[in-house]
């Protein structure tokens, strides 16, 4: 390592320590200090209710997920509630000829049930999408759909947003990373990832059972503050399966009256599960900036809990922003991986066309699964509003991992995890396949962008 690399590493470590100390002071002040100060581990955070008796299903990629959401809206009997980063009125949830646009789908549903849509209002200054002009135009178009209600939420923190993606229809909730829009990317991709300009890999969790009431209550709380309308207390649906489910959130302090000191249960959930890992950490995420997360990952690589422990990261080849920051953290992980336990990969379609990893899914030990809207950066863990759902159902976690790994590797992945990582993942990265080793790990000044950005805009 040259002198510039050494200086960069020391400066980067210093800035990250300052940022982590700032986060710790902030959370202590708000009554959330044990999230970062402690070493709590486990599958659920004590800060949120765990609901038992749910059915939990992970829908992979937009071409699979959106038709299921559309069908639920078409058959709505009680209400339709949507909270998105952005939703485009002309978006079609399916690519079938003559498929209705989202506004048409919601307008038809509004003829028989209440339909409410809550969108981010966009940044005050048009630095990034969706602009306030675009958000206002979407609201106007939705309101022209008869009885559809649409509100814009402008209570974002500086340079942050309302990022959650939830849909509640009657006794079913959808929580994931897919917005109903083509802004900044075409979400209509399939698990086969056929060649296209840019594939888009993502997930939505479909939930039935008592946990649906938790998602509905979260929407109702936000809706009351923005629209001024008190919704009826959500009915708790009957048990529908065997999964225990917990809704976890990021809500910055002083954003809503119902959470004046914020809600950082999503960060707590991640840190507890990663600390508890014994055999596997599998992360599919758009970003990997958070030093709080990477410190736990580095510790696992330096002090593996078992001989069989492996870590697999699936990240985009070219993130929409923060590419060097993610590469810098990845460089730290590679440096810590003296035992050859880490695989860092990205997806490509047939013909080596890129697939954009927009996913926010994590699996630990085939025992814990989290899916939702949160990226692994300071935005999602401290300053944007986010919603994930978590389950400790080993059948759901393992079957989801096997399905994803079989899709990515086009191979039998049912063997022991360490064998699959060493004998299938690693060779696949070297030859023609759907996975490719992440290129160009940055260890220079690019790594500093994340900590500097965090210090400038964090609360």
Protein architecture, described:
By secondary structure, the protein is an alpha/beta fold. It folds into two domains: 3-49 and 246-457, Endonuclease Chain A (Endonuclease, Chain A, 2-Layer Sandwich); 53-244, Endonuclease Chain A (Endonuclease, Chain A). The protein contains 13 helices and 17 strands. A 15-stranded mixed β-sheet has the order 4-3-2-5-6-8-1-9-16-15-14-10-11-12-17, sandwiched between helices. Strands 7-13 form a two-stranded parallel sheet. Strand 11, helix 9 and strand 12 form a beta-alpha-beta unit. Helix 1 runs parallel beside helix 13 (449-457). The chain is globular. It starts with a helix and ends with a helix. The mean pLDDT is 92.
Itemize the secondary structure elements and their pairings.
Elements lengths: L2 H27 L4 H4 L12 E11 L1 H13 L5 E5 L17 H9 L4 E6 L11 H12 L5 E5 L12 E4 L2 E5 L22 E3 L1 E6 L2 H17 L15 E8 L14 H12 L3 E6 L5 H12 L7 E5 L8 H14 L5 E6 L7 E3 L2 E5 L3 E5 L5 H6 L2 E6 L2 H16 L7 H14 L4 E3 L11 H9 L2
Parallel strand pairs: 2-3, 3-4, 7-13, 10-11, 11-12
Antiparallel strand pairs: 1-8, 1-9, 2-5, 5-6, 6-8, 9-16, 10-14, 12-17, 14-15, 15-16
Helix pairs in contact: 1-13, 7-8, 8-9
Protein name: Phospholipase
Keywords: Hydrolase, Lipid metabolism, Repeat
